[in-house]
């Protein structure tokens, strides 16, 4: 609590205070928040909420996790009313999430209580009947229930984002909104489980929770497997990336930055999520073929012989050979293989031109050259971002695909680039320092012919 900025502390106290006031008021008005005959329902829903809250599920969206616990709150809105929904939400305080600080538990419990209560009030205001629904009256619940969900979900998001914003001093406008649409849709979709629990209660009572939960947990398990797989993919890529960067003192971090710039372009041109992930991998691994180029060639001072230059030009093919067996890379292969093709057809390894060049390769070419220009190299300092952007503009239509250059410039206006920190000269023992960067479009490698 002491670590929180004062506005966050005030907000936290206000949210907890509001939730406490709701519960106290309901006790004062009706003697108890929930009637005695509804206690069993309260208990089952609170347990359901607690189980789900203890296991939030990551969505197929990078920065969001969702717990389906709120569907228990929404079921409570129908079965036992707003006060009951508030009490069910309050059980978030007891969630089994090791390491979750008490302050976060209190906030979660309070904000879920407020959301449940507000949703319940809306449900009642729209003449939703509180109690175990009768089969022939089920249709009448749907409208008020949809309205209650439409209040619960945004209120929950606003209360939580406000807390995050105040605690981390991130303004709402800076909160990453990528994937928010998918997150909202999933969130609203999970809301329907509450209606199912409430609807089934009339026939199978508390077993309805199990019936609804079972497929939910199977889905959650599948999601967990998927994310574990993603993490192992990421670790594989990171290891390969690190192996490449040990060959080159000055290009440390280059793969990660190319990956980031590539995903900026990919999003700008509207690639779908799976392709953005694939291009991120391709950006990380675009130079993995350098592992197959003799270090003495990469480190050579002065012009290269034709053979040495040919060895450098082979690195996209070598890259493809190295990663060919990694099944999940899919389209990333094309990006790795063709990232040195040029729009005018004078690139390598195949001399493809214009639309012959795979889209991934066009994207990576821009990201690669930009990061090279804005990073320190042994033979020159980093160029400022505007200079590098000018260079990209000048070479659009010859070296680079103009569509990708324009997309990157737009993306940079939205998300300013953070160039890497200055690179100090390498310590004497770090002799593995290439003299020339093959990615640098402003200083082409000198090749001596006829040697
Ligand atoms: Fe390369």
Automatic annotation (TrEMBL):
Positions of the HD-GYP domain: 229-424
Residues that span the membrane, as ranges: 41-61, 73-96, 145-167, 179-198
Origin: domain of life: Bacteria
Keyword Transit peptide on entry: no
Keyword line: Membrane, Transmembrane, Transmembrane helix
Segments for region (Disordered): 416-451
InterPro entries, sorted: HD/PDEase_dom, HD_GYP_dom
Name the UniProt record assigns to this protein: HD-GYP domain-containing protein
Organism expressing this protein natively: Nonomuraea antimicrobica
């Amino acid at each position: 609590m002491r670590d929180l900025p004062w506005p966050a502390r005030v907000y936290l106290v206000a949210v907890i205070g509001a939730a406490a006031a709701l519960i106290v008021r309901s006790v004062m008005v009706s003697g108890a928040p929930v009637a005695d005959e509804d206690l069993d329902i309260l208990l089952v829903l609170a347990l359901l909420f607690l189980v789900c809250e203890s296991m939030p599920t990551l969505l197929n969206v990078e920065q969001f996790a969702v717990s389906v616990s709120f569907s228990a709150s929404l079921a409570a809105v129908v079965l036992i009313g707003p006060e009951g929904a508030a009490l069910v939400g309050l059980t978030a305080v007891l969630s089994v999430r090791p390491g979750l600080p008490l302050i976060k538990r209190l906030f979660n419990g309070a904000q879920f209580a407020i959301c449940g209560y507000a949703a319940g009030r809306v449900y009642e205001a729209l003449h939703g009947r509180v109690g175990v629904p009768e089969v022939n009256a089920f249709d009448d619940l749907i409208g008020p229930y949809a309205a209650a969900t439409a209040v619960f979900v945004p209120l929950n998001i606003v209360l939580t984002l406000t807390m995050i914003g105040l605690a981390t001093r991130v303004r709402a406008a800076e909160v990453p909104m990528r994937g928010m649409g998918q997150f909202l849709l999933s969130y609203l979709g999970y809301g329907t489980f509450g209606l199912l629990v409430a609807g089934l209660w009339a026939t199978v009572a508390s077993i309805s929770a199990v019936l609804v939960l079972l497929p939910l947990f199977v889905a959650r398990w599948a999601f967990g497997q998927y994310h574990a797989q993603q993490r192992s993919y990421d670790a594989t890529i990171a290891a390969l990336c690190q192996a490449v960067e040990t060959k080159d003192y000055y290009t440390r971090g280059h793969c990660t930055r190319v990956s980031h710039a590539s995903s900026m372009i990919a999003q700008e041109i509207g690639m779908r999520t799976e392709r953005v992930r694939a291009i991120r991998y391709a950006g990380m691994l675009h130079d993995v073929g350098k592992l197959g180029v003799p270090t003495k060639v990469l480190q050579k001072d002065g012009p290269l012989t034709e053979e040495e230059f040919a060895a450098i030009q082979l690195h996209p093919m070598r890259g493809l050979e190295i990663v060919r067996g990694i099944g999940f890379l899919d389209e990333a292969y094309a990006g790795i293989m063709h990232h040195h093709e040029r729009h005018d057809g004078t690139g390598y390894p195949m001399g493809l031109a214009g639309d012959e060049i795979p889209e991934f390769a066009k994207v990576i070419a821009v990201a690669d050259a930009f990061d090279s220009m804005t990073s320190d190299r042994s033979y020159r300092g980093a160029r400022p971002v505007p200079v590098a952007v000018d260079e990209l503009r000048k070479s659009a239509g010859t070296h680079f695909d103009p569509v990708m250059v324009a997309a990157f410039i737009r993306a940079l206006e939205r998300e300013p680039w953070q160039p890497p920190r200055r690179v100090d000269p390498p310590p004497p023992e770090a002799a593995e320092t290439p003299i020339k960067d093959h990615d640098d479009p402003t200083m082409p490698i000198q090749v001596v012919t006829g040697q």
